[in-house]
Amino acid sequence: MAPKARKTGEPLEAEETLQAVIIADSYEDRFLPFTLERPRCLLTLANMPLIEYTCEWLASVGVEEVFVCSGNHTDQVETYLNNSRWTKDTSPFSVEVVRSTEPSVGDAMRDLDQKGLMKGDFICIYGDVIANIPFDAALKAHRARREKSKNAIMTMVLREAGDYHRTKDQHHRRCFVIDPETDRCIHYEQVRPRTSPRLNIPEEVLKDHVEIDMREDLIDCGIDIYTLDALAQWSDSFDWKLPRQDFVHGVLQDFETFGRTIHTHIISEGYAARVNTLRAFDAATQDVVSRWAFPYCPDTNILGDQSYQLQKGNVYKEDGVVLARSSTVSHGSVLGKATSIGEGSVITNSVIGRRCVIGRRVEIENAYIWDDARVGDDTVIETAVIANEASVGKKCHVKRGALVSYGVRIANGVTVEENTRITRFKRKRGYDNDEVCQGVTDSKVVGEGGEGFRLELDEDEEDMHEAMLAGTQEMNITTDGDDISDFESGDEEDEYAHSREPTSRSGSFTSIASDESGETKRDHAKFHREASDSIFDGLQREQDPDHIQLELQAQRLTENAEDNQIRRAVAVAFSRRIANLIEGGRTAKEAVATAILPNQRLIKACVKEASEQAEFLLFLQTDSVHRAQGSKVLLHVAFVLAGEDMVDGDGLEMWWEDPRSVATEELKKVRAETKPVVDQMAGESEDDDEDEEEDDDDE
Amino acid sequence: MPSSVVGQTPSLTTFLKSLKQNDIENSIELFISLLKRRQIKNSRPCAIATTHLLLRVVAEPKRKWDAQKLIARVRHVGRRLIAAQPREMAVGNIVRRVLGVIREVAERDEDPLTDSEISGSASPITGEFQRPALPTRFSEFSPLHGAAAMPHNMHSGRPGTADSMAMEFGGTPQRPALLSTNASYAGQGPPGTSLFSILQHPQGRSPMATPPPGTQSPVTGPSPSRRAIAGEIPEKLDIKAEVIDGIKELQDELDVVDNQIAESALDHIHSNEIILTHTSSQTVQKFLLTDARKRKFTLFHAEAYPNNHEATHATILNGAQGEDDSDERWKPLTSLGITVILIPDTAVFALMSRINKVILAPHAVLANGSLIAAAGASTIALAAKTHHVPVVVLSGVYKLSPVYPFDTDELIEYGDPSKVVPFEEAEFTDKVDIVNPLYDWVDCDLVDLYITNLGGHAPSYLYRIVADHYRMEDIDLNAKQDAVVKKG
């Protein structure tokens, strides 16, 4: 047994220090609108910032050096850490904030690798993990494996959680195929929501392993033990973004070539969970309040200035809480310092921050009210989040799933509908980075004299869409329905899969034509993202197509982009816009018409020749694959494009015959419905388009 | 044994090792966070860690302590430690014991001077400094147990009574020092036993205790001179060294406490008795082992599910492995030919009629003779009461706390419910509240005998031991340090 090396003293003997990387940036928008103004890791869960839980756990396993990778809101993270006990002399580990502007976990990892900060095996953890699991065993097992084989490059720590568990990601089912003998993860797949639970297990896997476990009952708590080799892997594959879908999947696929293995460590005691969705936020809060995460419960008073006391029924009160005699605080509630609750108010299963003022006869159930919020008399708040300094007027009704962001004021007598996200700020997509700017108050939403507006999720409307569907599925399962599940959405892996899939897929398409080096490919990805965002933004705001065109041109010049990239960006932007409209309640046909017809010039500008048209369609098709009603949209788009002469018969035919458009099963499926249009157009390309009217009726 | 080189989970062992390298503030913070994370838990590890930490605090290099500064410093550290985990009462106990040591050293240093300076005057007498007069404390303690938690209010609340009470009790012969552990400090000053001085003793105590504001204490007069003396003392006497010796003795006490308790085993357990015990307490095991060498008895061992059953099973099977805090090892009872029967906690009542004696190990013992012990102890004690089976509690003095249990609920810690229902049982976590209390509170009338390292005591006698070990002024560490402020 070696003595522990101290952070201050020189390392004894030839010891390594245990290092950890906290990925503080979520690179995603699950917590909009809150994450507009604050990084996710500083959101409070049971009145303590999430990153504190993570740091506590790291300290409890004896980590001595921590690097915090942060992209968004780095300043806030840094300020917070600088004022916290983690940067004091007495901190059990040293903390360094690594700034990176790149927008994914993969980029952050590559950044780390470049800087060469890591000295040996390290723990990689998200800034939103709550855990109390013992870690010695995992580390020991990992080291033992490393001793045996240098190819065991990573260990994932997974928590058993049974079939259905509130803390487990419900609709993103992660399947791990594990060889129980070596704990090796031999296949990883994420079963997409709303698809049949089918795994594509490679044949070799079945051949090579005598025994395999297929497990879907694991909470992926986002705690991994990396080796330097694993970090190098990230660098080798510049387009990997997500630790699971890209990294794990990629490494496993390359097993034949490189022989690198990824292992799992499955724990069956202790608590570990990621707060990566609002639903997880809800579940984790309940877990913390009902002491599953012991000792990380409010009454442990982990932060020096806390003074929570546990009372019967898991009610935690801090010093200086003022309760009116006739108020009731029941079951699973947490009340912060100097909060006052008026006469006749009933608080159930809710977390209320510090210095909140709750009026009289207020009913609050399953709600999360953060510091300094105010709630007026006779208001009812159901499962909702009211952020810092927000105020809700008298006689209001905040319905299930509403999110009221920082500083929003809701006037008296307003009903906040279910799943509304109200904020004062919105994100403006810029070329280089997003700006957050103040939005215009919408008095329809917040009432006269209120402040704030309804946030429409411009960025990942697709995601939202999916979330809603998933939400309804969820509701069927949980009949009691007290979860914030409606706006629950997938996790970043999935989201990124969305925005990424076209990237990589068309990336591979373009690479057929041109030999791109990795560097340019990366540039292209960046250009694509920015361009499609800005086009989409323009479409969304129904700007003049010339204007959008101009903007696009400017971007193109700065990035020195090629034509096919522009086509791709345009295609993706339209596809998103259409999906957005569909989600807004339009039918596919209407949506296509609304999106495309006023903006014909935009498409015409980039699509001239038949080959270009074919490519454009291909991009559209690729993008439609993962959209709701994708095949229908594609049909209508093809129809409209043909009808308005943006695409001619040759183009359609070329597209149809292109081997790339039938490259996968999904692609085939999505284009199946479009067949009649193509047949017709291809056949009658000379005849002009007389029969289109009836064709339309057919649909 | 952990073979890993890096990233050892912090524990008592790593804490003690790190003490040597870390500076003091780091060590304090580390201990606080270990307490909060429950990585150091239970009375003995807490007590050991606290003594080591306080030793470091006192021995802080480049600091010259005078008594008051040292007291203030230790109090400050103590408050932080107690706030970190108020339910580990051993921490507070040790802090108070150390404060007592410091005060004693300070007084010892002061006494000769005082004597020479104001001999014959109505000055306090050294004997009272030495061992704060019990009768007075008795008077403050017994009628109102509550005084334990707020002695200062009590004191200042009724300035007159302290005097009159003291007069009343003044005549009672002072008890000889009954402490073995503290004996080393006792008897070093000249015993002052003149009748006059005895009558004067309430004032005599006042330099160390809070002077009652209302009382015309003669000492408040000469206090300036006293202060001057106090200032000189550090030069003359090495308070630091003395206190360090005192703390080391405390550490020794912690080391031998189990053996001392075990010494009386033969007086309590007789041949062919049937004993019931609970949890995997080291103290109890040693006690039983000592007896088992001479006699045969039968042991029923309640397994203390769900928080301690694994440790209990291991103890029954293997004895101590020497893994934890000490390198001590011992054989399991079964290897000495003792019949050990493991029973679930629920079977206790059914078996109680066959049992001759219940032996419990507490987590903490409170001033009024009640105790906090692992969950299940209350059931056992009640069952024993019903069957008129004597309950014997084995407890080191370090577990004895001057805290009076006003709210017994507050003293009980609630742990991780996954011990009761596994986390995987999603239905449970969603629909049922699961509660896992770690401790039980057992009232004093359910206990028949306490065996400490000082010997056996009735629960009603514990207040005396409390009074002997803790200074009135240290009982509430959060109270304003009037005395200290005035003096220092």
Automatic annotation (TrEMBL), chain A:
Subunit structure: Component of the translation initiation factor 2B (eIF2B) complex which is a heterodecamer of two sets of five different subunits: alpha, beta, gamma, delta and epsilon. Subunits alpha, beta and delta comprise a regulatory subcomplex and subunits epsilon and gamma comprise a catalytic subcomplex. Within the complex, the hexameric regulatory complex resides at the center, with the two heterodimeric catalytic subcomplexes bound on opposite sides.
Pfam families, sorted: LbH_EIF2B, NTP_transferase, W2
Compartments, as annotated in UniProt: Cytoplasm, Cytosol
Keyword Transmembrane helix in record: no
Protein family according to the UniProt entry: Belongs to the eIF-2B gamma/epsilon subunits family.
Highest taxon of the lineage: Eukaryota
Entry GO MF terms: guanyl-nucleotide exchange factor activity; translation initiation factor activity; translation initiation factor binding
Biased composition (Acidic residues): 480-495, 684-699
GO cellular component terms attached to this protein's record: cytosol; eukaryotic translation initiation factor 2B complex
UniProt domain W2: residue ranges: 521-691
Keyword Protein biosynthesis: yes
Name the UniProt record assigns to this protein: Mannose-1-phosphate guanyltransferase
UniProt-annotated stretches for the region Disordered: 475-526, 671-699
Keywords on record: Cytoplasm, Initiation factor, Protein biosynthesis
Compositional bias ranges of the Polar residues kind: 504-514
Automatic annotation (TrEMBL), chain B:
Record's subcellular location: Cytoplasm, Cytosol
Domain of life assignment: Eukaryota
Keyword annotations: Coiled coil, Cytoplasm, Initiation factor, Protein biosynthesis
Entry keyword annotation includes Protein biosynthesis: yes
Coiled coil regions, renumbered to chain: 240-267
GO cellular component, one term: cytosol
Primary location recorded for the protein, binned into one broad class: cytoplasm
Pfam families cross-referenced by the UniProt entry: IF-2B
Cited InterPro entries: eIF2B_beta_subunit, IF-2B-related, IF_2B-like_C, NagB/RpiA_transferase-like
Region of interest: Disordered: 202-226
GO molecular function, one term: guanyl-nucleotide exchange factor activity
PANTHER family reported in the protein's UniProt record: TRANSLATION INITIATION FACTOR EIF-2B SUBUNIT BETA
Binding partners and assembly: Component of the translation initiation factor 2B (eIF2B) complex which is a heterodecamer of two sets of five different subunits: alpha, beta, gamma, delta and epsilon. Subunits alpha, beta and delta comprise a regulatory subcomplex and subunits epsilon and gamma comprise a catalytic subcomplex. Within the complex, the hexameric regulatory complex resides at the center, with the two heterodimeric catalytic subcomplexes bound on opposite sides.
The family this protein is said to belong to: Belongs to the eIF-2B alpha/beta/delta subunits family.
Protein name, UniProt field: Translation initiation factor eIF2B subunit beta
Organism per entry: Friedmanniomyces endolithicus
Designated gene of the protein: GCD7_3
